[in-house]
Amino acid sequence: ALLSELGWRVAVLEQHYTAGGATHSYERNGYEWDVGVHYIGDMGGATMSRRLMDFLTQGKVAWAPMDSHYDRFFIGDRTYDAVAGPAEFRDNLLAHFPREAAAIDRYLELLREVSRGMRTFTLDRTLPTWAATLAGPILRRRLPRNFQRTTWEVLSEITTDPELIAVLTGQWGDLGLPPKRSAFAVQALIARHYMHGGFYPVGGAWRIGEAILPRIRATGGEVFTYARVDEVLLRDGKVSGVRMADGHVIDCKVVISSAGAINTFTKLLPQPVVQEHGYDRLLQTVKPSIGHLGVYIGLQGTAQELGLPKTNYWIYPGGNDYDGALDRFLQDPHGPFPVVYLSFPSAKDPSFERRHPGRSTIEIVAPAPYEIFEQWAGSTWGKRGDDYDALKQSYGERLLEHLYDKVPQVRGRIDYWEVSTPLSMQHFCGYDRGELYGLDHDPERFRQDWLRPRTRIKGLWLTGQDVMSCGVAGAMMGGMASAAAIAGPRRMVPVMKRIFG
Question: 5 by DSSP, 3-state: which?
Answer without folding.
Answer: helix
